[in-house]
Write a structure and sequence with these properties.
The protein has three domains: 128 residues, no CATH class; 116 residues, Rossmann fold, CATH 3.40.50; 193 residues, no CATH class. Helix 3 runs antiparallel to helix 4. The strands form three sheets. Strands 3-4-2-1-5-6 form a six-stranded mixed sheet, with helices on both faces. A two-stranded antiparallel sheet has the order 7-8. 54% of the residues lie in helices and 11% in strands. The protein is α/β, with parallel strands linked by helices. The longest helix is centred in the middle third of the chain and has 37 residues.
Length: 475
């Protein structure tokens, strides 16, 4: 079933419209303030090419930054990132075209004021207005869920989260009746979690969905075979404009992970075909080298201070700590980190996960881990080609071997370059159990399937926020 969110394309159009209004109002305000009302009209006419390129650059940059589509959840940090990225890219486009034309397409004063007014207005709208408007009843996504079991209830909790925009409202559970049931069974009615249940067969489902003005149908019966008999009707509704998603697609789209219990070899192969990794791997590698060199130069003084503090706190211990990790296609490499545990910490325990309150971690080590400063030396691994800036975190060979036996498809992580940070690291708390490893694998598989350079940028900036403010991840 569909893995997109076509049922909210009309809401996406409203996002574009609001941004264009902000752009027009901001440009008018900048021109009036700089030139005055009398001279604004002639100036706009004489510099029409500059205004068109400026507007086109803003719109193109917003599109590339993902500002014109809803994310998995509403996040003011994501909005700020997209806003900064779009403004920077738009200014770059305008600068390049100005050099190409060998003249300034817009005066610096007018351009600066237009960007300032547009930027402030658009950010205010996105931060303060978008959440309020798209949680209103006018933009609600009316949802019907096929099924009455645990999966159906879980799907309801996911889509009705206060962070999901536009707001989704489950209006009915559809109890699926196989052919041959009595008419009175089809009409049976009860309530689950405050939502009415209508039992239906193939003959009635189309009329029920249309009469309730449903925008989205989620097929989430506990027995997946129950859905097959409804496929002809679901296809008709899909082509009639009603989005149809499976339970697995709902978890993937709204939670940003691929549920392992619904993964098969066929769906994993399909995921491989859909992955952008072969297309972006070369660009990703070039960015890894450039960014690592730049960041390494900037963080060199920080690294020297950290090394000095480690040596002062434990004069007899080495500053750096190295471990063997499993990398791309199973290749074992040596990873480098600043020491955060006491010397010979694993002599008694052997290779084990570090826990949140691990007694082996030093007081300085806790600070370094909180702000990810212990991972600065891994920039060397990135430049050497053993790691990427973004990707699944590499595990130790002993732990990797054990997890591969207990968790299906765990070795799929090795098909991409491991990273200093990753989608699982920013989406899931620190884990030290088999279940935590399972959940992180679900996020890693989502990253492999949906990898883009913009997604890498989002992960890098979110990691930077953790480095600067020590903010933890949320599930």
């Amino acid at each position: 079933m569909a893995a997109g969110r076509t049922h909210i394309r009309s809401q996406n159009a409203w996002l574009i419209l609001m941004d264009v209004v902000c752009l027009v109002l901001g440009s008018i305000a900048g021109a009036v303030l700089r030139l005055g009302p009398e001279d604004m009209g002639p100036y706009v006419y004489d510099h029409l090419d500059g205004w068109l390129i400026f507007a086109g650059g803003i719109i193109l940059a917003n599109y590339l930054a993902g500002a014109y589509r809803f994310q998995h959840v509403f996040s003011r940090f994501d909005i700020l990132v997209a806003w900064l990225f779009s403004l920077s890219l738009a200014m770059l486009v305008l600068s390049i075209t100005s050099y190409a034309w060998f003249r300034l397409l817009l005066g610096r004063g007018v351009l600066l004021l237009a960007v300032a007014f547009y930027g402030a207005l658009s950010l205010l709208v996105r931060m303060a207005v978008v959440k309020t408007v798209f949680r209103s009843e006018l933009f609600q996504c009316r949802t019907a869920i096929m099924g009455m079991g645990e999966r159906a209830r879980h799907a309801k909790r996911i889509v009705e989260s206060s962070l999901v925009l536009p707001a989704h409202k489950v209006v009915v559970y559809l109890g699926l009746i196989r052919g041959g049931k009595r008419d009175e069974d089809i009409a049976a009615f009860n309530v689950i979690d405050g939502v009415g249940v209508l039992k239906t067969d193939q003959t009635a489902i189309v009329d029920i969905v249309r009469s309730l003005n449903v925008d989205l149908i989620i097929a989430a019966p506990d027995d997946l075979s129950e859905t097959a008999q409804f496929y002809p009707q679901l296809r008709r509704l899909r082509f009639d404009g009603v989005e149809v998603l499976s339970y697995a697609s709902v978890v993937e789209i709204y939670n940003g992970r691929i549920p392992l219990d619904m993964l098969t070899e066929e769906s994993l192969m399909q995921m491989t075909w859909e992955s952008n990794m072969p297309l972006v791997s070369e660009f990703k590698r070039m960015l890894d080298i450039v960014i690592s060199l730049l960041v390494g130069i900037v963080l060199l003084p920080v690294g020297l201070i950290v090394a000095l503090l480690i040596k002062i706190s434990a004069p007899q211990s080495s500053v750096l700590y190295s471990q063997l990790r499993v990398g791309h296609f199973g290749k074992v490499f040596r990873i480098y980190k600043f020491r955060t545990m006491r010397e010979n910490a694993e002599d008694e325990t052997g290779p084990v996960w570090a826990s949140v309150n691990d007694p082996r971690i030093t007081r300085l080590g806790k600070v370094l881990r909180r702000f990810r400063l212990d991972e600065i030396p891994q920039l060397v691994n990135v430049i050497a080609g053993d790691m990427s800036l973004v990707g699944p975190r590499p595990e130790r060979p002993e732990i990797c071997e054990g997890l591969s036996r207990k968790i299906p498809y765990f070795s799929e992580r090795q098909n991409v370059m491991p990273g200093i940070s990753g989608w699982a690291q920013i989406k899931y708390p620190y884990g030290d159990s088999i279940e935590d490893a399972r959940r992180k694998l679900e996020y890693d598989l989502y990253y492999i399937k949906h990898l883009t350079l913009r997604m890498d940028l989002e992960i890098i900036l979110r990691t930077l926020r953790i480095v600067l403010f020590g903010k933890e991840r949320n599930v």
